[in-house]
Write the structure tokens for this entry.
Amino acid sequence: MARGRRLALDRTRVMGVLNVTPDSFSDGGRYLEPDAAVKHALEMVEDGADVIDIGAESSRPGAEPVPEEEELRRLIPVVREVCRRVAVPVSVDTTKAAVARQALDAGAAIINDISALQADPAMAAVVAEAGAGLVLMHRQGTPKTMQQDPRYGDVVADVREFLYERMQTAAQAGSAADHILLDPGIGFGKNLSHNLTLLARLDELRPLGRPILVGVSRKSFIGEALDRKTGDRLMGAAAAVAVAVLRGAGLVRVHDVRAMKDVVRMVDAIATHNTPR
Ligand code: HH2
């Protein structure tokens, strides 16, 4: 429960992506108009989204940072209207404390901080004071440079250690443990092998004791593995989502909600079925 909106994680849930940006890697420009954005959010809820994640700053490799004023201008009217129109919790994808504060005032329940509280020293307190949910995501570097030459010892151990340390920081600032979600940050400062390893060994993040969020949707590691362009990665994403669910993901962040909801429900149905012998 965060800010009056409940997200039960007894089975895998689906987070629908809404990018109000001109330049997101797969849907940039499509939902920049507030009316189109709100309509898409309603469609995703209709299709089975359990959370809507709204972002106004692209984090694709090479992306330029967006000034605070511009991020607020794109984001806040859409957050306010989506929160008014849907019953599911709304999460906001931002690394800026001032943006988070206004988004929470506009009705958001969760802050999805892809910097895991590292980009803005004021973020941890803003989230804690509001009693908001918090996604802490691992990344190496920043979007501008992160794909240049990512290196790890053991990628799973390194990500687990980072997430553990960021959880302590969030707790010290006053966030309740049960408000925190953890994300290995697929594609954020990781090469193909790092991404495949994290998915194959996702269950090794379970000892952290918090639900794991995974975002694979349309990402370039699928393109690399299958030699497919951005618009042609649905089946690759379906396979990656299926593996993530089997390896214990609590929440999957996707663009194609209707299709991925079926994948999640089917995998959950098999995984929880009592197999007669
Ligand atoms: N991926 C993207 C953005 N935000 N947040 C979390 N927690 N996990 C993710 O994997 C994640 C994220 C990138 O995808 P998208 O929003 O579609 O693209 P862009 O950053 O270009 O807007």
